[in-house]
Amino acid sequence: MLNTATKTEAADAPQELTDGFHLVIDALKLNGLNTVYGVPGIPITDLGRMMQAEGLRVLSFRHEQNAGYAAAIAGFLTKKPGICLTVSAPGFLNGLTALAHATTNCFPMILVSGSSEREIVDLQQGDYEEMDQLAVAKPLCKAAFRVLHAADIGIAFARAIRAAVSGRPGGVYLDLPAKLFGQVMNADAGRKSLVKVIDAAPAQIPAPSAVKRALDVLKSAKRPLIILGKGAAYAQADDAIKSFVEKSGAPFLPMSMAKGLLPDLHPQCAGAARSTVLKDADVVMLIGARLNWLLSHGKGKTWGEAPKKFIQVDIEPKEMDSNVEIAAPLVGDIGSCVAALLDAMGGNWPAPPADWLNSVKAKRDDNVAKMAPRLMNNNSPMDYHGALGVLRTIVKERPDAILVNEGANTLDLARGVIDMHQPRKRLDVGTWGVMGIGMGTAIAAAVETGKPVLCVEGDSAFGFSGMEVETICRYDLPICIVIFNNNGIYRGTDVNSAGSDPAPTVFVKGSRYDKMMEAFGGVGVNATSPDELKRAVNAAMDSGKPTLINAVIDPAAGSESGRIGNLNPQSVLKKK
């Protein structure tokens, strides 16, 4: 009787339970994903609260797109998928731009969105924020999954993490219907359902024959050039890349987010002679860079008349021959490929011909000398070069700070003027040239690295995400925003000759963006000269306080579409 009673009492004892909310949190924590960027609302408000209570850092934004950009750049900086959490339908759609941006730029990111109930959505019966989000997301990311049962949450996050970081990284969508969060299951079974991802991005070793072919082509060059892309920066194989470039002796050209892998002041850097080296090189090695529009697709006037051979190092085989023939494709992860190249080079790699190195140096020095006086003016109102000359000096004095940069002229000119000295310290608009990444990127850079951030914005670009200055103040982040304010898109002097409305590219003249920051308790400064700008930025970087500096730029400064005005089609018709 005693044994029977004991068994009955044990059977009646309450089981420890868990639910969908906690399994999502446990899956993230188990895999070291401890920071979440998002916007609360139905059906994920309580999930955000619970995440915070369980020790995750949850940063709540004013718009999902900016939270998504933060998650995307977090993935770039950490090599772990950044997490963006949104509500259903409109919130999901707001995050989708950032998800596509992450995929295009090869940043690992997971967009986690609550969604409406499948039964009603599939019958199109008009549920709250009804949308087949999985179908919408699929064309814009590497992978997309929907979870219907709490027991599958662990495996779903494991698959999402692997998809985001393996091979060529990118965005992944995870759809969590509202009913999922409240599903209850045995806690022990829940723990067993979780998956700790092991070796999510395994090394992909290049074939020895491909390594030999690449080095044979490089050794045959009379005018070699190495181009470093943001994939090389993402790889975090900094020492190996530096050793390889220096051992090769070849001039190198960093794409914008690869600046600082080797310092821009390195004697082999050809950034200031970009046009010359692209036109005159006979062998070009691409490391983590793609021959897309940013490199004129590897052909045309930019690349000159001289025949060229291309060596390409990339983890994606389909990238080879995408625009021009690749003479030596080297497929594998960049760290493994560069290590293999170094090992195979031996101890007596021949230096490139002196006449090539001397011609590149002469062109670089000449261009730097021509630019120097333009960067030293103290005009009021400022032009771009006077303002950027100040910021160039500040970045040199503070090489550990992170520079975030977007705009048209503000982006194009800053990319060439401001030298970078350490890797992954320049973050910008990426492959699409998309405007609006600034505030989200700055926030994630400050959160993920703990470093001060200098965010240099065109006034147009700032408009896409400006309300996030409240987010910056709320979390008291060490971010200094400098807005190059020339009263408009490209410039503030356009005139509408046909009516009283302002021209489409013109903003309110004399806007005081600094007052926005003051409204939320941050520091606002109006700077009208390079000297004032220098004092204000240094004070902000020293204090670590959220600061916005309204840098007054001559409204006539700037060119149509910056340096890509050729992409703007022109009408051949004349008005009668």
Automatic annotation (TrEMBL):
<dbReference type="GO" id="GO:0000287">
    <property type="term" value="F:magnesium ion binding"/>
</dbReference>
<comment type="pathway">
    <text>Metabolic intermediate degradation; oxalate degradation; CO(2) and formate from oxalate: step 2/2.</text>
</comment>
<dbReference type="GO" id="GO:0030976">
    <property type="term" value="F:thiamine pyrophosphate binding"/>
</dbReference>
<keyword id="KW-0460">Magnesium</keyword>
<dbReference type="InterPro" id="IPR017660">
    <property type="entry name" value="Oxalyl-CoA_decarboxylase"/>
</dbReference>
<dbReference type="InterPro" id="IPR029061">
    <property type="entry name" value="THDP-binding"/>
</dbReference>
<keyword id="KW-0786">Thiamine pyrophosphate</keyword>
<keyword id="KW-0456">Lyase</keyword>
<dbReference type="InterPro" id="IPR029035">
    <property type="entry name" value="DHS-like_NAD/FAD-binding_dom"/>
</dbReference>
<dbReference type="GO" id="GO:0043531">
    <property type="term" value="F:ADP binding"/>
</dbReference>
<comment type="subunit">
    <text>Homotetramer; dimer of dimers.</text>
</comment>
<dbReference type="Pfam" id="PF00205">
    <property type="entry name" value="TPP_enzyme_M"/>
</dbReference>
<dbReference type="GO" id="GO:0008949">
    <property type="term" value="F:oxalyl-CoA decarboxylase activity"/>
</dbReference>
<dbReference type="GO" id="GO:0042802">
    <property type="term" value="F:identical protein binding"/>
</dbReference>
<dbReference type="Pfam" id="PF02776">
    <property type="entry name" value="TPP_enzyme_N"/>
</dbReference>
<dbReference type="InterPro" id="IPR045025">
    <property type="entry name" value="HACL1-like"/>
</dbReference>
<feature type="domain" description="Thiamine pyrophosphate enzyme N-terminal TPP-binding">
    <location>
        <begin position="20"/>
        <end position="135"/>
    </location>
</feature>
<dbReference type="InterPro" id="IPR011766">
    <property type="entry name" value="TPP_enzyme_TPP-bd"/>
</dbReference>
<comment type="similarity">
    <text>Belongs to the TPP enzyme family.</text>
</comment>
<feature type="domain" description="Thiamine pyrophosphate enzyme TPP-binding">
    <location>
        <begin position="409"/>
        <end position="550"/>
    </location>
</feature>
<protein>
    <recommendedName>
        <fullName>Oxalyl-CoA decarboxylase</fullName>
        <ecNumber>4.1.1.8</ecNumber>
    </recommendedName>
</protein>
<keyword id="KW-0479">Metal-binding</keyword>
<dbReference type="Pfam" id="PF02775">
    <property type="entry name" value="TPP_enzyme_C"/>
</dbReference>
<feature type="domain" description="Thiamine pyrophosphate enzyme central">
    <location>
        <begin position="211"/>
        <end position="341"/>
    </location>
</feature>
<keyword id="KW-0547">Nucleotide-binding</keyword>
<dbReference type="GO" id="GO:0033611">
    <property type="term" value="P:oxalate catabolic process"/>
</dbReference>
<keyword id="KW-0210">Decarboxylase</keyword>
<dbReference type="GO" id="GO:0001561">
    <property type="term" value="P:fatty acid alpha-oxidation"/>
</dbReference>
<dbReference type="InterPro" id="IPR012001">
    <property type="entry name" value="Thiamin_PyroP_enz_TPP-bd_dom"/>
</dbReference>
<dbReference type="InterPro" id="IPR012000">
    <property type="entry name" value="Thiamin_PyroP_enz_cen_dom"/>
</dbReference>
